[in-house]
Write a structure and sequence with these properties.
mainly alpha, 434 Repressor (Amino-terminal Domain), 2 domains
């Protein structure tokens, strides 16, 4: 069966991109108000943490001036590594060797490594990078 978490993350990414194309005219807060939901709900929808009902997706598409079908991820969207951290060639080779070419294991392991890379590279509240924190000695 499909990875529904990834489906909703990709849906949220597409919604966020469509909203951001509207420019300053449509902030998360403004979209939430027009939909009659909380800003936290919009944040969660865009992050893929909230499973959005179909009627709300229709309203979102209408407010964003797009077709609902353009917001729904395709299989290719879910398989493509777009908007994800690109792994170095050597790391991909190691992952492919470790999974022995099994597509589901390959996807799971590359996804995990990408999440770890994003977590390491993410800005911290103290403003220090992972490398800066490591070199405290």
């Amino acid at each position: 069966m499909a990875d529904f978490d990834e489906l909703y993350r990709e849906l949220g990414r597409k919604i966020r991109q469509a909203r951001e194309r509207q420019g300053q005219r449509l902030s998360q807060d403004a979209l939430a108000k027009q939909l009659g939901i909380s800003r936290a709900s919009i944040v969660n929808i865009e992050a893929g943490r909230q499973r959005t009902p179909l009627h709300l997706l229709w309203q979102i598409a209408e407010l964003l001036g797009t077709e609902l079908t353009l917001l729904i991820p395709t299989r290719e969207d879910l398989l493509a590594p777009t908007n994800q951290v690109q792994l170095e060639r050597e790391m991909m080779k190691r992952i492919e060797d470790a999974t022995k070419g099994d597509p589901s294991k390959l996807k799971a392991l590359t996804g995990l490594v990408r999440k770890l890379q994003v977590a390491i590279d993410a800005p911290r509240p103290d403003g220090k990078s992972h490398e800066q924190r490591k070199s405290r000695n």
